[in-house]
């Protein structure tokens, strides 16, 4: 957390450059001051001398001699010079005329391994959720009358496993996530695919970890037993208490789903203990009580973790979140984040996965060239075996980059990587939060701007505020319980 040890003092002979602040984001936690460096994503804790130098240069550029003269009454000259050197090394300060550090347009290597494959085993669903990105008003794939089969075949699923084994290169562990539509509508293929993948992975000296997302309506004892016995990670799509759930997550006849899914979820939680069970909530203008939703799902139902995401939709939809509601949502997120911190300071679990995920990225110094791993470390497979950027684009010809038989079309993938690199997103170049965000979700961008390469400008203020909150939480942990952060080293 502290700046690197200085290896020498700057040369003070001859003409001196004007020193000025460079690009970083300052934040405070438990009385300590930190810098979040951009674009490197490094975090440094400032001592008194470092803070004094930054405060001085915040008033305007200054020569080194002027810095020394201004601060020599408070600090030894050697300490000032050494601290200037340290701040220069981490690029917190530098020559006022030095060009701004830009993100290099370095593309990933051609053999970048596939880490996670999302298998859309069906594009059919037994619900009619109003806001659904796949079946609702903003869908980009015709799942009702399109050319893709409604269900993935055993053969295509096995070919997809071979694709994953090949594209994961020399990684010892790969991840396979089953998705839909409603995933469990094609349960027989899930069973056969897991058995096949386990056998083939063992033959290749690898291991595959499995997970799935479901709306829980089709859970029954034999399926729950299979999930538990096979250590399948499960995420349940559920939006909250009965009035919330039944308001938007409904069957095709309009009937609400809460009373159907609640006993099934409780049976799952009681039996499946080999992997934590999480809930995934879609927030809309019609269900903005984040605190009530979170507490119901964790305290009353018993989910281990809950992740909440704003609905992906165009702003004129009646369920689109208004700017005022985004502000209210942020305040509630911050309240849960502070609860998460209090638990972390006591080495206790708190189920708010949004803050945990961001803290992990901050700890690992993630500086993204892309909004996510879609089209690179993560790919989605449609029911016919076509490979898309991610599961949200499965079946979209525009976003297809190959198929599981012939492999990835490297030329199409290369064009995608160039077009979606943060270096191509000029709106992001001045944003201090770009190492974490890098423009955001491609699917969100496509829905709102008509192209997946556009930065999600409608969430810029929100993302910066949320990232700042998580930085403060990270700093507090670094000060009060740094050992807790070791769990993110793996």
Describe the structure.
The protein is of the alpha/beta class and 490 residues long. The chain folds into 2 domains: 18-95, Alpha-Beta Complex (Outer Surface Protein A, domain 3); 116-411, TIM Barrel, CATH 3.20.20.70. It has helices at 48-58, 64-71, 77-89, 154-167, 187-203, 221-229, 242-248, 258-271, 290-301, 323-345, 353-363, 410-420, 434-437, 442-449, 460-480, and strands at residues 18-21, 24-29, 32-37, 43-46, 62-63, 93-95, 116-120, 173-179, 207-214, 233-237, 277-283, 305-310, 378-381, 386-388, 400-403, 407-408. Helix 2 (64-71) packs across helix 3 (77-89). The longest helix has 23 residues, at 323-345. It is globular and about 75 Å long. The model is unreliable at 1-10 (pLDDT under 50).
CATH architecture of the largest domain: Alpha-Beta Barrel
Count of alpha/pi helices: 15
Radius of gyration, in angstroms, nearest whole number: 25 Å
CATH topology of the largest domain: TIM Barrel
Distance between the termini: 18 Å
Quick one: how many beta strands?
16
Kindly estimate the percentage of residues that lie in beta strands according to DSSP.
Answer: 15-25%
Which labels suit this protein?
ten-stranded mixed beta sheet; 490 residues; three-stranded antiparallel beta sheet; TIM Barrel; Outer Surface Protein A, domain 3; 15 helices; single chain; disordered N terminus; alpha/beta
Topology, pairings included?
Layout: E1 18-21, E2 24-29, E3 32-37, E4 43-46, H1 48-58, E5 62-63, H2 64-71, H3 77-89, E6 93-95, E7 116-120, H4 154-167, E8 173-179, H5 187-203, E9 207-214, H6 221-229, E10 233-237, H7 242-248, H8 258-271, E11 277-283, H9 290-301, E12 305-310, H10 323-345, H11 353-363, E13 378-381, E14 386-388, E15 400-403, E16 407-408, H12 410-420, H13 434-437, H14 442-449, H15 460-480
Parallel strand pairs: 7-8, 7-13, 8-9, 9-10, 10-11, 11-12
Antiparallel strand pairs: 1-5, 1-6, 2-3, 3-4, 13-14, 14-15, 15-16
Helix pairs in contact: 2-3, 4-5, 10-15, 11-15
């Amino acid at each position: 957390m502290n700046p690197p040890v200085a290896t020498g003092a700057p040369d003070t002979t001859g003409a001196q450059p004007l020193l000025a602040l460079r690009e970083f984001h300052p934040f405070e936690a438990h009385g300590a001051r930190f810098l979040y460096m951009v674009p490197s994503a490094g975090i440094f804790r400032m001592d008194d001398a470092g803070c004094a130098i930054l405060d001085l240069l915040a008033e305007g550029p200054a020569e080194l001699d002027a810095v020394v003269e201004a601060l020599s009454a408070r600090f030894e000259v050697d300490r000032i010079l050494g601290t200037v050197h340290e701040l220069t090394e981490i690029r917190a300060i530098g020559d006022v005329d030095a060009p701004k550090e830009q993100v290099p347009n370095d593309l990933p290597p051609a053999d970048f391994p596939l880490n996670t494959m999302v298998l859309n085993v069906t594009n059919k669903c037994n619900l009619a959720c109003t806001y659904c990105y796949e079946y609702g008003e903003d869908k980009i794939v015709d799942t009702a009358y399109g050319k893709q089969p409604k269900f993935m075949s055993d053969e295509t699923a096995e070919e997809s496993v071979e694709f994953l084994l090949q594209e994961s290169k020399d990684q010892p562990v790969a991840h396979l996530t089953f998705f839909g539509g409603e995933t469990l509508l094609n349960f027989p293929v899930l069973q056969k695919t897991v058995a096949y993948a386990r056998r083939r992975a063992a033959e290749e000296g690898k291991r595959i970890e499995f997970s799935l997302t479901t709306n829980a309506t089709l859970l029954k004892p034999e399926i729950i037993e299979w999930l538990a016995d096979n250590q399948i990670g499960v995420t349940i799509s559920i939006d909250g208490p009965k009035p919330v759930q039944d308001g938007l997550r409904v069957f095709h006849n309009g009937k609400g789903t809460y009373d159907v899914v609640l006993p099934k979820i409780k049976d799952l939680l009681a039996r499946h203990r080999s992997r934590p069970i999480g809930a995934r909530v879609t927030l809309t203008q019609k269900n903005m009580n984040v605190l009530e939703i979170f507490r119901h799902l964790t305290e009353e139902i018993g989910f281990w973790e809950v992740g909440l995401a704003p609905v992906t939709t165009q702003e004129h939809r009646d369920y689109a979140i208004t700017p005022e509601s985004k502000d209210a949502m942020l305040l509630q997120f911050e309240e849960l984040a502070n609860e998460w911190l209090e638990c972390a300071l006591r080495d206790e679990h708190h189920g708010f996965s949004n803050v945990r995920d961001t803290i992990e990225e901050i700890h690992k110094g993630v500086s993204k060239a892309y909004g996510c791993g879609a089209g690179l470390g993560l790919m989605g497979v449609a029911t016919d075996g076509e490979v898309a950027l991610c599961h949200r684009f499965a079946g979209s010809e525009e976003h297809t980059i190959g198929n599981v038989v012939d492999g990835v079309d490297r030329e199409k993938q290369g064009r995608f990587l160039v077009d979606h690199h943060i270096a191509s997103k000029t709106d992001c170049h001045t944003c201090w939060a770009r190492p974490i965000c890098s423009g955001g979700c491609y699917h969100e961008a496509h829905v709102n701007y008509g192209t997946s390469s556009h930065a999600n400008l409608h969430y810029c203020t929100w993302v910066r505020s949320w990232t700042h909150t998580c930085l403060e939480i990270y700093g507090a942990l670094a000060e009060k319980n740094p050992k807790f952060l070791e769990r993110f080293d793996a």
